[in-house]
């Protein structure tokens, strides 16, 4: 039995993640340029602070489909502020900001033949 003043703690609802809204790069870019931008971001991301394991989980979520991404986010204990994963926190309160270019393709991506 609990204390008369105690209440069951309400758990916050889990935010379902989604792909970012369509976006446009400042100039048309090729897939190779997009991949290079993504690689550079992920190579330097741990230097922005936070835990390397959380950065790894965010990368896996960004590169997976939505169902897999949701499972990764939930299992890593990542707190999602924006459902498109652009702003997240770990359980210790460290902030993780992801640019849209690591989460989806721009509308002006040059299709190579």
From TrEMBL:
<feature type="region of interest" description="Disordered">
    <location>
        <begin position="1"/>
        <end position="25"/>
    </location>
</feature>
<feature type="domain" description="DC-UbP/UBTD2 N-terminal">
    <location>
        <begin position="15"/>
        <end position="112"/>
    </location>
</feature>
<dbReference type="Pfam" id="PF16455">
    <property type="entry name" value="UBD"/>
</dbReference>
<dbReference type="InterPro" id="IPR038169">
    <property type="entry name" value="DC-UbP/UBTD2_N_sf"/>
</dbReference>
<dbReference type="InterPro" id="IPR032752">
    <property type="entry name" value="DC-UbP/UBTD2_N"/>
</dbReference>
<protein>
    <recommendedName>
        <fullName>DC-UbP/UBTD2 N-terminal domain-containing protein</fullName>
    </recommendedName>
</protein>
<dbReference type="InterPro" id="IPR039869">
    <property type="entry name" value="UBTD1/2"/>
</dbReference>
């Amino acid at each position: 039995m609990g204390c008369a003043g105690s209440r069951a703690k309400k758990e916050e609802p889990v935010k379902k993640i989604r792909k970012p809204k369509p976006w446009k790069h400042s100039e048309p870019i090729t897939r190779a340029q997009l991949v290079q931008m993504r690689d550079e971001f992920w190579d330097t991301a741990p230097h922005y602070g936070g835990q390397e394991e959380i950065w790894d989980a965010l990368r896996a979520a960004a590169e997976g489909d939505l169902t897999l991404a949701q499972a990764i986010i939930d299992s890593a204990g990542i707190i999602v502020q924006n459902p498109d994963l652009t702003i997240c926190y770990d359980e210790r309160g460290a902030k993780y900001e992801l640019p849209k270019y690591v989460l989806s393709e721009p509308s002006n991506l040059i299709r190579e033949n």
